[in-house]
TrEMBL record:
<dbReference type="InterPro" id="IPR003833">
    <property type="entry name" value="CT_C_D"/>
</dbReference>
<dbReference type="InterPro" id="IPR010016">
    <property type="entry name" value="PxpB"/>
</dbReference>
<keyword id="KW-0547">Nucleotide-binding</keyword>
<protein>
    <submittedName>
        <fullName>Carboxyltransferase domain-containing protein</fullName>
    </submittedName>
</protein>
<dbReference type="GO" id="GO:0005524">
    <property type="term" value="F:ATP binding"/>
</dbReference>
<dbReference type="InterPro" id="IPR029000">
    <property type="entry name" value="Cyclophilin-like_dom_sf"/>
</dbReference>
<keyword id="KW-0067">ATP-binding</keyword>
<feature type="domain" description="Carboxyltransferase">
    <location>
        <begin position="3"/>
        <end position="202"/>
    </location>
</feature>
<dbReference type="Pfam" id="PF02682">
    <property type="entry name" value="CT_C_D"/>
</dbReference>
<keyword id="KW-0378">Hydrolase</keyword>
<dbReference type="GO" id="GO:0016787">
    <property type="term" value="F:hydrolase activity"/>
</dbReference>
Length: 235
């Protein structure tokens, strides 16, 4: 496994991991990230992705050289990954006004809309990292067989809770924002609470399971916070 560390602006370093399989690189990134204690040594945030992480620091308290030293230490003495993966079950209204791209996605794949829903909800999808905006869970995509193209014309507004796919990835929008992914459904659950000490209950490595619900059940779930099966967000 190889790591490459580079300065990124005046208050961050970027760490790239390569040399292993995609899964190995991802797990190495997570284990390096777990070595950092936020608030200690001037570290402000650590943002892991698929094969890289960004370490942001307070440049009034530390500097690039010191943080690069912390990175070298973290890569030498990796920390075990945090806990067992939790499972999050997400009710989704597929199609219609909540999933305007379901039909186009089905036509692209050469299957029925019902088959798209079945494939999307058939497996546990692994959360790989946080995405934008607002900490959206970036997930492995369902077994569609083909990568799903992005929209030729992105939407200026995609509602929070929108369930979308593109390439071989899936996502649930945490906040409203523009977007070019294919929106196939929407959940009434609230994913993030910026006012809470713990903004979201999920973390990389967790598992997401989608369950189709009828539109007339929307109010049953509307306004509820997304919690892991079992209900403990700190598990």
């Amino acid at each position: 496994m190889k790591t490459y560390v580079a300065d990124c602006g005046d208050a961050a370093v970027r760490v790239n991991v390569s040399g292993g399989t995609a899964e190995q690189n991802w797990n190495t990134v997570r284990s390096i990230a777990a070595r950092f204690d936020l608030g200690a040594d001037g570290i402000v945030s650590v943002i892991p992705t698929y094969d890289a992480l960004l370490v942001e620091f307070d440049n009034l308290l530390t500097d690039h050289d010191a943080v690069r030293g912390l990175v070298r230490e973290a890569t030498t003495i990796p920390r075990p990954l945090e806990g067992e993966p939790r499972t999050f079950e997400i009710p989704v209204v597929y199609g219609g006004e909540h999933g305007p791209d379901l039909g186009e996605t089905a036509r692209f794949l050469g299957v029925t809309e019902a088959e798209v829903v079945r494939l999307h909800s058939a497996a546990q999808l692994v959360m790989r990292c946080y995405g934008s905006p607002g900490g959206a869970p970036m997930l492995d995509g369902p077994a569609f067989g083909l990568p799903i193209p992005r929209r030729s014309s992105p939407r200026p507004h995609v509602a929070a809770g929108s369930v979308a796919v593109a390439g071989r990835q899936a996502v649930v929008s945490a906040r409203p924002a523009p977007g070019g992914w294919a929106v196939i459904g929407r959940t009434p659950l609230i994913l993030v609470d910026p006012a809470s000490e713990q903004i979201s209950a999920y973390r990389p490595g967790d598992l997401f399971v989608f369950r189709a619900i009828d539109a007339d059940r929307w109010d049953e779930f509307d306004g509820r916070s997304l919690l892991p099966v079992g209900g403990d967000p700190h598990g």
